[in-house]
Amino acid sequence: MQTDLIQEARRQAEICNACRYCEGYCSVFPALHRERAFSDGDITQLANLCHNCRGCYYACQYTAPHEFDLNLPRALAEVRQASWKDHAWPRGFAHLFDRSGVLMAGGLVLGFALIFALAQALRPDSGAGFYAYMSHGLMVTIFTPAFLLPLLAIAVSLRGYWRTVGGGPVRPGDIWGALRSAGRMKNLDGGHGDGCNFEDEDRFSQARRHFHQAVLYGFLLSFASTASGTVLHYAFGIEAPYGFFSLPKLLGVPGGLLLSVGCAGLAWLKLKADPELGAPAAWGGEMAFVLLLFAVAVSGLALYAATGTSAVAWLLPLHLGAVLTFFLLTPYSKMAHGFYRMAALTRDAAQNRAA
Can you tell me where the transmembrane regions are (predicted)? Predict the structure, then answer.
């Protein structure tokens, strides 16, 4: 990790530790106040606990033009981004998405969509629903490694992160505490329940928390929809297409709607917020990730709405291209933050238990 980023974050953390005005804010501050000196691992852990709600910045008396020039949200955001890149595996891909995220995501989606469109020439003579355009076997052959290999890359990355922050054995209660915190998005309520200040300076708002929850639960419902379809196919021999009142659709349609609304909301808030309070160099990559996830959700809903029409022939390749791009970029895009955030929350729960 870049030493200057760590050093600057350490300088600001030491000033915050002496001031303690923000003691009642998010989980960063109780964790920060447990320490008297900060190792590189401590700073990395604090950075990944930070949700960039920015309340501490707007409450701080030591921001510019004060000589201390504190901007803790930015300092931690830059360390956080650097930690993901340092632990990414294979490391050679780590910085590609940040440099030209929108271009890369768009190019991959269109490229993969073209390949899937050409692959329709290999479709079986018989098949219903999507399988009339592309065989089930071909989809499984492509998407199984595209799903499992990024998970392996994330697992290797998290192992490195856990070592850096000095993580030890974990108890089930620590994981449960982290899951509850993530599910409630409690660190986006500003520590006082009024919300955070992400998009409008000293105005408190729950918007970012709610949009994050929509994305989280929409993603989980969509994943559960795919998983339930897999179980129906292999365990019960019930093949797609599925009716609206089937489990895959009852999970997938609300999941897609939540994802669409959540991603659109987060993109809107990101456009309103001050980029100087995050990691400016990563702004494009973060926006590209939100737009990519939005494209996955919207194309999936459009594909379902177009069932039985000729539009499926071009909507299916676009949707599959977006999904494949999303899977392959997971270890190197903002999607990685969910895994690191869970690791940081788990580590924090373990430290709170031991304190």
Answer: 101-122, 142-162, 214-238, 250-269, 281-305, 311-332
The residue among 104, 133, 130 whose CA lies nearest residue 118 is 133
| The two three-digit tokens of residue 252, written as one number | 């997938």
Give me the residue label for tokens 């910085």. 95
Write down the pTM of the prediction. 0.92
3-state secondary structure of 77: helix
Q: Give the separation between CA 38 and CA 58, rounded to whole angstroms.
A: 24
Q: What is the DSSP letter of 39?
A: -
Question: pLDDT digits over 73-111, tens only?
Answer: 999 999 999 999 999 998 877 777 766 777 888 899 999
User: Is the Cβ–Cβ distance between 225 and 82 less than 8 Å?
Assistant: no
Instruction: Please report how many Cα atoms fall inside a 13 Å half-sphere around the Cα of residue 225, on the Cβ side.
Output: 25
Q: What Å distances lie between residue 177 and 50, 146, 338, CA to CA?
A: 17, 31, 15
Contact 98, 284 (CB under 8 A): yes
CA atoms of 44 and 145, how far apart (whole Å): 31
